[in-house]
Amino acid sequence: MGKTMIAANLAMGLANRRRFQVIAVDFDPQNMLRLHLGGDLSDGHGFVGLFEKAGNWGDALRQDQKSGVVTLPYGQLSTKQTLATDGILAQRPDLLWKPLLRMAAAPDMVVIIDTPPGPSVMTQAILPYADLLLTVLAADTASVVLYGDIASGKTYSEVKSERRRYVINQFDPVSRLGKAIGQGLTDKMGQSLLGKVHRDEHVTEALAMQQSVSGYAPSSRAALDLNLISERVSHYLENLR
C-alpha cells in the first residue's frame, strides 16, 4: 500500500523544511527504504547486527548523497538470524526502543520508522513510545476493514487515538469503486486523515531512479500531495513541543 514510499517522502519533506533534524529508520528486512532515498544497495550494514555486539548505532547511520536524508538501515541477516533477533527482542524490547529514544531525544529530532507489513516484534516494541502512528491505506475494501480494526482499538491499541493519523494512497478518482471507498474513509476519518496521494506514474518512475517523488517530479500530482502531508505532519509535531 505504499508505506515505504510514504515514509521516505515524508522524511525528505520534513528534512527539506529544515524545522527538524530527521532520521529515517528501516524496520523492514527487505531494506526498501534506502531504495527510495538513493542509498547504496550493496551496503549491508544496519542496526540489527548491533544487538548482540552492543555496538554504537551511530556507526550504522548513513546520509544518502542524493536526498541528504540520514537513514538507519535494517541491515542484512539470513532468515535464521532474523528469527533469532526477533526472539531476543521479544524478551528484551528495550534493546530496540532505548537506542531509538536516545536518538529522538536530541533537540528538534524526528525519527521516522518504516515498519514491516503486518504484526512484528519490532513494531510492538516501539509502539508505546510513538508520538504519531501514521497508517497508509489504499482505497479498497481491505483498507475499510483495517481502518475499522484500528479505530476500534483492536489493532495498534498501544497508541492513543489522538496520536493516530491516516493517509490514503494510490487514490484514483476515475474509478467509481475507489472514489466511493475513498469518500467513505474520508468521512469516517475526519481530521485524522492527513491527505490522499493520487495514483501517479511518477511514483514508480521515481523509485526506479532511486529518488523521492518530489526530487524526481516536483510538479507531479503525487509530489504535491506528499508535500501537503509533510506540511501537516510538521504542524502536528510542532504542536507537540
TrEMBL record:
It comes from the Bacteria. SUPFAM superfamilies: P-loop containing nucleoside triphosphate hydrolases. InterPro entries: Cellulose_synthase_operon_BcsQ, DNA_Partitioning_ATPase, P-loop_NTPase. Coiled coil: none annotated. This is Cellulose biosynthesis protein YhjQ.
